[in-house]
Amino acid sequence: MNFELSIDRKRTSSLKWDHVPAIFGVEDALPMWVADMDFAAPPAVIEAMHKRLEHGVFGYTLLSPGYREAVASWMQHRHQWDIQQEWIQFCPGVVPALSLIVEAFTEPGDGVVIQTPVYPPFYRVIKDHGRELVENVLKLDDEGNYTIDFEDLEASLSSERTKMIILCSPHNPVGRVWTREELGRLADMCQRHDVLVVSDEIHADLVFEPNTHIPFASLSDDAKQRSLICTAPSKTFNIAGLNTANLIIPNDSMRRTFAKTLEKYALGSITPIGAAATEAAYREGADWLDGLLTFIRGNMEYVRDYAAEHLPEIKVHLPEATYLLWLDFRGLGMDDKELTQFLVKEAKLGMNNGASFGTTGNGFMRMNVACTSATLQDAMSRLNQAISARRSV
């Protein structure tokens, strides 16, 4: 796969590229924000979709035995996690799944813990359902490393009102891959306080060596029985627009409850194209993914090295997973509003505002580096020119 191939995404109704004026208020900002990649999907995925299109009939579609086997085999070979095929429950996206889970397994007023700064929809699915948002703020050291504040987490989980924690694993936006020890401590706390664990593992395949993703449900029998694991091929293989995700729910009762909630909103039907693409991705996409990870890591190292040489005001900490950099702009001495305006108006760059991930994201920006080297070099050049101009004033 040639990850340097430039594909023009404009005029394709791309959220990332065609909606820049609506999102950022300018026409010429380079989009480095929403989490999809500028690369074509794996050839095997495209071929599978072509073959399915040639059939010509696109009626209601079920999860086939082959689909289930492909998902289970991927989990076993990629993550050393043996799952039963009946544990797999389709949903048209991880964010819809989170919303349905909050509705199905908690009541208004119940507390739901999230570890901030974190993916913005986590806030919405809690607040929109009238649940109490409980923040377990991650600790940040001077080197840019984030860790869990376990003392605060214990206090949050011990509240009688706390019924659920939504875990981001690997974490978006800080890029942490939680260790077995960290996950084990969290699991012990949730068992002790009888808290349900919803683990968003959508970035599980995008982990850089030597780090290893540990599926939460694989930790112990108790963890397996009290967790719902959210997975998807969307980030891994750049097929987010196909609206295909898979929840892995070992607990029979919880799986039935979730299925009933899906049925309530008529959301349980996969598209024939999504089914074909997902099965092909999990059967034949491993080599493509390995190449992608090497390319993405190179892009991240380029940003780190460029900033170290030209932009000392910006701290770049390489993440352990994802294709997203969590950049520390606090050295520029700007407040959140000023920083946003500076990047959009002066640097002509569209990134995700760190404040949208929570107040602890103030001064940070999330940058998507899943793009060609030429695009990334353009982005860093724009940033360098804008900061240099500020310095000369």
UniProtKB/TrEMBL annotation:
Keywords: Aminotransferase, Lyase, Pyridoxal phosphate, Transferase. It holds the Pfam family Aminotran_1_2. GO terms for molecular function: cysteine-S-conjugate beta-lyase activity; pyridoxal phosphate binding; transaminase activity. Its EC number is 4.4.1.13. The keyword Amino-acid biosynthesis does not apply. InterPro entries: Aminotransferase_I/II_large, C-S_lyase_PatB-like, Class-II_PLP-Dep_Aminotrans, PyrdxlP-dep_Trfase, PyrdxlP-dep_Trfase_major, PyrdxlP-dep_Trfase_small. Residues 36-383 form the Aminotransferase class I/classII large domain. It is an enzyme of class 4 (lyase). Its cofactor is pyridoxal 5'-phosphate. NCBIfam families: C_S_lyase_PatB. PANTHER family: PROTEIN MALY (PTHR43525). Belongs to the class-II pyridoxal-phosphate-dependent aminotransferase family. MalY/PatB cystathionine beta-lyase subfamily. This is cysteine-S-conjugate beta-lyase. The lineage of its organism: Bacteria, Bacillati, Bacillota, Bacilli, Bacillales.
